[in-house]
Amino acid sequence: GTTEYSALADRRNVVVIGGDLRRPTLSALLGAAEAPGLGDYLSDPQLGLQECLHRVEGRANLVAMPAGRIRDRRGPAEVLRSAEVAAVIERLREHCDHILVDGPPLLPVVDALELAKVSDAVVISLYASRSRRRALDRALRLLDDAGAAPVLGYVLSGVQRAEERYGPGGY
Asked: Which H, E and C letters describe the chain, residue by residue?
């Protein structure tokens, strides 16, 4: 979440894109403006890219492009499937070191798969007590079958720290 984005932005110019157009959370996570954002930009030809980029307070090198809202009749998957998403990423590459797309869960909807197709790499986020191996295997197969970007790694959250102790089982 915020810690990872902020740590990366301490050293590089980073743009974080809110790619979950169904249940946007990036703005609240980073304390950035909610709109305009990606959905607004992709559905309103009058809107400029700079209008959709918002500085994150306290982080000089971190810029957020929130999910925003879709202003036309297309659904999220259709918007994310468009060539315009790749064009946005290409334009942003000219001005920053890293672009992170915070997408929706991979299995329930096709949206994340569409984003993975225009990305250089995928990082899969897992929640320790909820994520199941079978679901992870299915997600990896979906990515592979779609010709999506390679999986760079995994982030495991929700891990409960065991009591630190010496002796049997303490290491």
From this structure: CHHHHHHHHCCCCEEEEECCCCCCCHHHHHCCCCCCCHHHHHHCCCCCHHHHCEEECCEEEEEEECCCCCCCCCCHHHHHHCHHHHHHHHHHHCCCCEEEEECCCCCCCCHHHHHHHCCCCEEEEEECCCCCHHHHHHHHHHHHHCCCCCEEEEEEECCCCCCCCCCCCCC
> Is the model's pLDDT at 163 over the cut of 90?
no
Length, in residues, of the chain: 171
CA–CA gap between residue 150 and residue 121 (Å, rounded):
5
**Average pLDDT score, the chain:** 88
Residue 8 pLDDT = 56
In which band, very low, low, confident or very high, does the pLDDT at 110 lie, cut at 50, 70 and 90?
Answer: very high
Instruction: Classify each residue of 131-167 as buried b or exposed e, where b means 16 or more C-beta atoms within 10 Å of its C-beta.
Output: beeeeeeebeebbeeeebeeeeeeeeeeeeeeeeeee
pTM of the entire predicted model: 0.84
